[in-house]
Amino acid sequence: MTIGRQLKKMRQLLNLSQSQMCAGIISESFYSKIEHDKNELSINKLLALLNAHNISFYDFFEEFDEENLSKIKLEKQIYTAFNNRNINQLRTIKKNLNNKDTIELLKINLMLATLNHQVYEIPEKFKKEIINGCQKVDLQNEKNFWNLAISTYVYNFNELSAFIDYILDNVTELDLTNDDMLVSLLNLIINYMDRCFRENSLNRIQILGAFVKQIPDSFAISFHKLIVKYYVALADNDIALANQIENLLNKSGYQSYIKTLSVVE
């Protein structure tokens, strides 16, 4: 059972069209992809849909078996640890994985490589699957951004830049009110900025900095926007501002996060 299939089942039980099921909360085209398991739905939007049709949260998840729910929980833990750049937590999760969690193991290894600025050597078959899976970036699917964010050292720089250019050229397709999507997108941008800094492609950092500045402020991404500002300061060679942001992060208890960032030698 998946979120999409369960939504479809509930919709059919209520004798609703896809348009009626959307209730003005999401677009019909986006919802259709959810039912076909081609799009991810944020928990806030899911709750809004359930509430709009008086569907009990507990009734909705009643048919999810324990393994499926544990997978959802595990994925949430992994992405949260990556978002916080908590390398120790990722290593702990990796240590506790069982043999069935091969995809999760691959993701964690990619995350650890990204945070340590290393190239993770994976079998060519898996590498092709990752690259092919992101060839057409769905700008309404946050999972695409996560997959790109954790794979910034799998792609060569030109491949990665092509994905970023595609996103910037299609900004109008982004739902800038979706905090979950924005968190995944900002993680991708931060990792790409780090790669740009190491590739000495400073102008691309400045372009992305200008883009992020236009994104409406939200508590969910306020920290990420500060990190973006840090990389823009590095690109501008504004060492005073970069040090000021670094000191603020240190005082706020983000020492482990700082260790994953590029610094001016």
From TrEMBL:
Organism: Lactobacillus crispatus
Lineage of producing organism: Bacteria, Bacillati, Bacillota, Bacilli, Lactobacillales
Domain HTH cro/C1-type: 7-60
UniProt-listed PROSITE patterns: HTH_CROC1 (PS50943)
Top-level lineage group: Bacteria
GO molecular function, one term: DNA binding
Coiled coil, from the record: none
Pfam family, one: HTH_3
Protein name: Transcriptional regulator
Cited InterPro entries: Cro/C1-type_HTH, Lambda_DNA-bd_dom_sf, TPR-like_helical_dom_sf
